[in-house]
Write a structure and sequence with these properties.
- 63% of the residues lie in helices and 0% in strands.
- It is mostly helical.
- The chain has 2 domains: 159 residues, Leucine-rich Repeat Variant (Alpha Horseshoe), CATH 1.25.10; 95 residues, Leucine-rich Repeat Variant (Alpha Horseshoe).
Length: 269
Amino acid sequence: MKSGSFLHAGSHLALLFPLMLFSTLSGCYVDVPPADPESVSRRLSELLGDPDPEVRRTAAEALGKIGHQSANSTLIAALADRDPRVRATAALALGRVNDQMSGAALVEHLEDPSEAVRRASALALGEVGVSAAHEGQILQALRNSDVSTRVAASLALLSLDTVSFSTDLVAGLKDSDPQVRQGVAAVLGETGDVRSLPSLVGLLKNDADAGVRAEAAFRLGKVGDTGVLGALSAVVEKDSNPTVREWAHWASRQIRTSPDSGSVSPRGQ
């Protein structure tokens, strides 16, 4: 669900927060309130150039709450702010503004020096949506040497409306970090593609991390067919972790009771 606008036309109360905020930040009294969100956004956007980083951060946060697209270009510029708190807040605000023009800038900041900015960019990408070309850039970030960047990339992929099956995703299942492997397993499940089943079964049976195995079991319950029941049954009986056993049992039950359990088709077919 995309974030809605903070303001509603004709609502004087809805204008109260940004007007009070602007008065506080600018040090002046607003005698006559602006009549529309665009006017408030324009005045707040000017504060993104303030020398005080807390003023810039608070202005970016307010712009996100207003959610008017007139702030998009200034928030994109704020992604280059020298203060990581401002960059992270600007990224989240862009998600609320929900303009696809910000997608490319947000993808670039999946590799920001700040972990907070990387995570904020990943969350925002799930709101604005990205093109197939941007999906490729996110997959490239999934191969970054920094583990938190790879985690952010997996979060970004998982938050998209649709993700395509790819060998790059399958390669991500061999990541050294369990958070990345779990995120990629979730993304593979979301593709709904039968080609993901062998990889998910392999994780379920062999991954050293219980969270990854539990994720694989859950995803198999969503997209698996009767061909994976043997692997699930073996895990129910033998896995050392009770949570993994529970999810494997749940997945088996889901597949057995599903009217489509005989086969699974790739998404869109």
